[in-house]
Amino acid sequence: MTWELIVFLLAALGIVVGCLMPNEWLPPLPNDKLLHFLAFGLLALLLARMVPGGWILQLCLLGLLGAGLLIEILQNLVPGRKFCWRDMAANAAGIATVALCAPLAHAYL
What we know:
Blueprint: H1 3-19, H2 32-50, H3 55-74, H4 85-108
Helix pairs in contact: 1-2, 2-3, 2-4, 3-4
């Protein structure tokens, strides 16, 4: 198992736990949308490092976006949380930023 996969799995677990935790358990967040952007951007960057480019990477990034959608849907089951399209937009923006820069990531990382 590569270090990227270990970091990816730990980061994904942390993001899922944080997103599915009741609001009253969380500290005040400075900018929720920025956190979504950075979290899903980090996961996308790790995927870009692990997966060869092309359609395989695109499929993995699309799966990551689907995971973000699933998390948002599951938040409806958590007290004090709800589905938010702006969170999904921030997730998508983080993934898209990495997707647009993926050729550079493969060339220099």
